[in-house]
Amino acid sequence: xxxxxxxxxxxxFLLLAGGVWAQVDDPIKIDSSIVRINVGVxxxxxxxxxxxxxxxxSIFEDGVKQEIARFETTTAPFSVVMLLDMxxxxxxxxxxxxxSAARFLDALAPDDRVAVVEFYSKINLLNDFTVDKNLAARSxxxxxxxxxxxxxxxxxxxxxxxxxxxxRRKAIVVLTDGVDTVSRNADRKLLSDKKxxxxxxxxxxxxxxxxxxxxxxxxxxxxxxYPLALPTGDPKRLADPTPLQIALYHASRQRLQLIADRTGxxxxxxxxxxxxxxxxxxxxxxxxxxxTLEYSPTNEKRDGKWRTIKVEVPETNLIARSRQGYFAR
Length: 329
Hints:
329 residues; alpha/beta; six-stranded mixed beta sheet; Rossmann fold; four-stranded antiparallel beta sheet
C-alpha cells in the first residue's frame, strides 16, 4: 500500500512537472495593441541628433495625435540578430563576409545583445543572444553552408528569437543577395506564360505569404531591419541577362527595399567587396542614433487596414525618420 502511494505521488509529480516544462517553450505573445517605433533624427546636413527627450516628439496615426506611453533614448541597448547568407551564391565572398561582420560587432555598445544565425537550405542558430562579442565573433568564423537561400524563413526565425527578448529594442541586420529561393521559384512560375515584353511589370514584389508574414511580425514587435545587399543579387550585374532574369532579380531587390522601408531601416547595396565592412559599421552607428517610442492607438479597431504613422520634432531644421505605418491586425 505504501509503495502504491509512493508510485502514485511520483506519477502526479511527473505530470505536474511535465506541464511546467511544456510551458518553457510556449510561444511568446506580444501585445499587438502597443505600437513601437524606432526613430532617427538628423539635421539638414544629415548629422544625427542624439540629445532629444520625449517632449521633443509628437506621433500621429492617420493624422490623429497619439500619447507617447514609453520613450527610450539613443543610449538604450539593443537586441540584434545578425543573419548571414551562407547559400551557394555567396561562397566567393565568405572571407569578406566574416571579416566585415566581425567589424560590426566591434561597433556595438557593450550592453547590446547579439545572436548570430546562418542560413542557406537550413537555418542554424550559431549563438543565442549574448553581450559576449568574442563568442559572437567565433560564431561568425564558424559560419558555412551551401544550397538554397531560405531568406524569408530565416527572417521569420530571427523575429521569433527576438520575441523572447521582451521589451528590449530590437533590430535585424541581414547580409544577403536577396534572392529567396521559394519566392524566386514562385516568380518564375508566374512568368512562365508571359511574353518577354510583359515580364518587367508582371511580378508584384509586395505579394507572397511568407514575405507579408515577416513584415507583419516586424510591425508587431517594432523591429527595424537593415538589409545589406550583396552584388550577386543586383540585376545590373548580370552578364547578358534575359528579360526573365532581369524581372526575377529586380523583384528580389525590390523586396529588400520594401523590408527596409516598412521597418524603418535602410537598404545598403554593396557595390564593391571592400565596402562591406564600412557599411556594417554604418548600420551599427545608425542603431546608436535611434530613439524608441511606444503608444496605444486611439483607434482600437483591428480591421487589418493600413495605418499611417508620422513622427514630428518641433525644430524646423530637424528631420525624423521612422517606419511609415502598419496594418492593424
